[in-house]
Here is the input.
Amino acid sequence: MPTEVYLVRHGETMFNQLNKVQGWSDSPLTVKGINDLKVTARNLSQVHFDRMYSSDLKRAIDTVHLMKDANEVSELGKIKKLPAFREVFFGSFEGDDIDETWKKVAVAGGLKPETDIDKIINQLGIAKFREATKKADPRHLAENSEELDERMDQAIDQLTQEAQGLGRVLIVSHGDFIKTLAIKYWNQANGSHVVPFPENGSVTRGILHDNGKFEIVDYNIKNNELINF
Here is the structure.
């Protein structure tokens, strides 16, 4: 039996608000983030889930509990953390100013200093962007495409084991990780790196098939669209 997968991006955090790089580093949800998530949770309150998961980062854990507490039609046990679904790791850039970080990444990729990440990715492609990030990182700890792709495979493999026999699950994950999943698994992306960054509290829907194949069928569904979803 295929499993329907709802991927929810966590709510806005303090680092989001302060324009800081946030991968494996963590910061608390803002008041706006919590209020926006309450709308998402209300829109999903009548959707039955067999199980809910989150990455092991606190902003995702706090988000999934808001989803769980608002749901009126599911009997959910303990939330399990799936570390493979955590955000992309930005190494030494964690907590730094985003604009200054992208300037360094652009230069490492052979471009002029640029603060617009979409322009950088459009020129380099997502794989070279990851390599440039690792190169620009003074300690070269940031995840490159190969490392991230391996972790995505681990995430889907783990989910395949976890979700056997389940009809629908919810996982709270992170913006760059969800976007990268979409580049790989969303038919409309067709392998293109030109995929919009998912909004805080948005829902991306996927199907996990019995053979372990995963596909994304709806991407970055916002609250005003969830009402009629």
The longest strand covers residues 214-221. Residues 145-162 form the longest helix (18 residues). The mean pLDDT is 95. Strands lie at 3-9, 51-54, 80-81, 168-173, 203-208, 214-221.
